[in-house]
Amino acid sequence: MHNTINIREDLVWLGGSDRRITLFEGAYPLSDGMSYNSYLLTDEKKVLFDTVDKEIAGLFFENLEYALNGNKLDYVIVQHVEPDHSATLKELILRYPDVKIICSKQAVNMIRQFYGIEREMQVVKEGDTVCTGKHELTFINAPMVHWPEVIMTYDKTDKILFSADAFGSFGAFNGGITDSANDFCFADYLSEARRYYANIVGKYGPQVSAVLKKAAAIEIETICPLHGVIWQSHIKEIVDVYGKWAAYEPEKEGVVILYGSIYGNSANSADILANKLADKGVCLRVMDMSMKHPSYALAAVFEYSSFVIVSPTVDAGIFGPIDNMLNSFVSHNISSRKVAVIDNGTWAPMAGKLIKEKLSSCKDLTILEESFSIKSSLTNVQAEGELEKLAEALK
Ligand code: FEO
Predict the structure, then answer these.
(1) Which of 4, 150, 358, 380 has its CA 20 to 30 A from that of 58?
(2) pTM for the structure as a whole
(3) Residue nearest to ligand 1 atom 2, measured at CA
(4) Range of the domain at 347
């Protein structure tokens, strides 16, 4: 049965949750599923904002049919062609053959490539407008947030920003679909919103900053993203934190300790450092990268001002789980952080040198000269000497 919610009198949410998905995009672990949003404007013209992932196609088409209430669908605005939002586009056209696709120029080829849809599409660029009756829609280019074809749509009449993937989150809905729901807690929600941003959009900070600048010039009462809650009462908070993430500015002063350990000795060094830092009043997170997906480490590095990598040397290289994590940091352009490295090697600690080389392609990382090596296990002398100095440098 349909499950729609009116956000405004003439704006209907048609989304849904997939609580069985465990890996988003085949790469990012999900413990609480994923949500997909689509919206229908029921003005004189009926306008659909994006479709949904194929996993919730059945519900989506029931919702759409119900919300249209026998009316014809005039437009579908394809803001983002990634298949979690467009996989049901071909079926949409089969069901509603007269619907006109509105999209950016770059989206046209992508839609053809993915779905073989050859029909004529209405190409829009920044500042173009579409009048649907009472509502005037205008378009905002958002290239590389996080694909090149992305546009956002601004409903000038009701001051609603349809923001594509921006301001979205991992996670299925947990009751209400808006941030005005009674039990919504911004601080709790932020953790998966941050991990979503860091991993999906995080590489494109300058492009996100450019869109935020455009958004600052318009009055926004509601943000309708393609994933996660609809923003009504925490718009300033989410826009502000996006500004920080886009500028690679940490949310808080503190240290994330990211360690790999084979026999427990590197873990022991990480824990001793953590205790020293805690004694000095430093905010901390500690992660064993053999047990955590790199997406969690990347999110933590976006949150905190400093990070420490503790890694064994294996086959004259970096321990695998740490190496995977570093590849993710480098590919997401992590920058502007204080970094320390502790490497471990029983006969030749090499990981430290290689970690520093790998991070050298990141901008504005300050690698502390207090970084040091251990041989097999931390000694008392090192704990009171080099490790103490490192803790002082990090506090
Ligand atoms: Fe949610 Fe970039 O797709």
Answers:
(1) 150
(2) 0.97
(3) 82
(4) 252-394
